[in-house]
Amino acid sequence: MIARSVRVLRLFSPKLHRFRVQNSRHLIVCLHKYFANDSLLRISPPNAAIKVCVRTLNSNSSDFELDLVTYCSVSDETLESLSEAFEEILEKQSKIDDFDVSLSSGVLTVNLGKYGTYVINKQTPNKQIWLSSPRSGPKRYDYVNGRWVYKRDKVSLHVLLSREMSDLFDTNIDFTCCSYGK
């Protein structure tokens, strides 16, 4: 993890090579020195920049704990992206005439008429996204490695929606191009 973090930071600034990072605590000390002393990046306070960098680096880790602000941003962007994708896909389909897609207060509802209703909603206390599917039932998704993943079967929300919609419409539908789908 540390080696990967240092590689990412070196992309951020080639000047970081002068620090020999040994562990995560040493990484934070090096970042503090870097941001406090770099004349081009006089960031005050340097701890704010360090916190952002460390959070970004740790977001690749599967044990990354989302803070509430990041969770809200990521989940809102996910739901908005899915909402737009559903509207676009359903407008092109001739199989369903009376569909309805609505996003309000963190709840995305996709009514497919006789094929059922999908409900995808934020679950802020658990920092999850919940899905209620007429085909696969209820599932709870956690944010893991930049994707929303159901921990029991390791399938992402976007992959499951792609499968179910592809089966329903007998054509290839891909939700993985939506935000946080890959």
TrEMBL record:
Transmembrane segments: none
SMART domains the UniProt entry points to: Frataxin_Cyay (SM01219)
GO-annotated molecular function: 2 iron, 2 sulfur cluster binding; ferric iron binding; ferrous iron binding; ferroxidase activity; iron chaperone activity
Enzyme class: oxidoreductase
Compartments reported by the entry: Mitochondrion
Pfam families: Frataxin_Cyay
InterPro entries: Frataxin, Frataxin/CyaY, Frataxin/CyaY_sf, Frataxin_CS
EC number(s) given by UniProt: 1.16.3.1
Sorted UniProt keywords: Heme biosynthesis, Ion transport, Iron, Iron storage, Iron transport, Mitochondrion, Oxidoreductase, Transit peptide, Transport
Catalytic activity: 4 Fe(2+) + O2 + 4 H(+) = 4 Fe(3+) + 2 H2O
Gene Ontology BP terms: heme biosynthetic process; intracellular iron ion homeostasis; iron ion transport; iron-sulfur cluster assembly
GO cellular component: mitochondrion
Family: Belongs to the frataxin family.
Stated name of the protein: ferroxidase
Annotated source species: Dinothrombium tinctorium
